[in-house]
Amino acid sequence: MPITGIRVYLLADSSDLSHLVLRLDLAEAIRVLQNYTGRLFYWAQQCGSPHWLYLIGEWDSLEQSTILFPQTEFHEHLKNLMGLDLTLISEWNIGAPLCEFPLPQSDHELTGTVLSDAVYVMERHYFNPAGATEGGLNGTYECYKELVHKRLPGTRIGGGWRMDVHEQTPECILVCNWTMFDELTEISRLSINYES
User: Fold this and answer.
1) pLDDT (tens digit per residue) in 47-74
2) CA within 20 to 30 Å of 139's CA: 32, 61, 77, 100, which one?
């Protein structure tokens, strides 16, 4: 089964993403990665802190993402980008295909997202090892979905367990879509009560 990979990069303050050449270089890096995997990949930028970039896409397996990926020309391409100081901070390999998330699934959807005010929220949830079952994950989903759907009907939520966690605490990643940033700031004021 395919898995979803999210890599978190920090862009140095000296790098200017408004520069067209840098944007073209980042697009070329994605092209290299898509040619390697045959799957959709794209960049996302954090709203509140634009120097945080997220590389999102789908892999055939955990092995392809963690062992084969570092050997591809993608990393060489990133290193060679002129004026772009990009540091890999974290990587999350999630045991669910991209279609399980409310994220763009095609180039067409991606274009529509870029042209809209769409916002995506990624949350990390940690579970007590004794309660880290599918039931615990599903319980978190249901509680969160209920809260969000009461305020914003039609909002989608998806997620899955991280496959690359080596610590004792299991972790899942939940992703929720919003139509605009104002909705996110409104919902973030609400308290979410659940046991995990």
Assistant:
1) 878 889 999 999 999 888 888 777 777 7
2) 61
Residue 183 has pLDDT above 70, yes or no: no
pTM, to two decimals = 0.80
pLDDT of residue 121: 82
**Average confidence (pLDDT) over 41-48:** 86
CATH, domain range 1-104: 3.30.70.100
Under a CB-based contact definition with an 8 Å cutoff, are residues 85 and 14 in contact?
yes
Range(s) for CATH 3.30.70.100 in the chain?
Answer: 1-104, 117-196
Angstrom distances, CA of residue 164 to CA of 10, 61, 93: 21, 12, 6
Q: Which tokens sit at 98?
A: 């991209």
Handedness of CA 79, 88, 29, 27 (dihedral sign): negative
- Contact between 103 and 114 under an 8 Å Cβ cutoff? The reply is no
CA 196 – CA 188 distance, rounded (Å)? 19
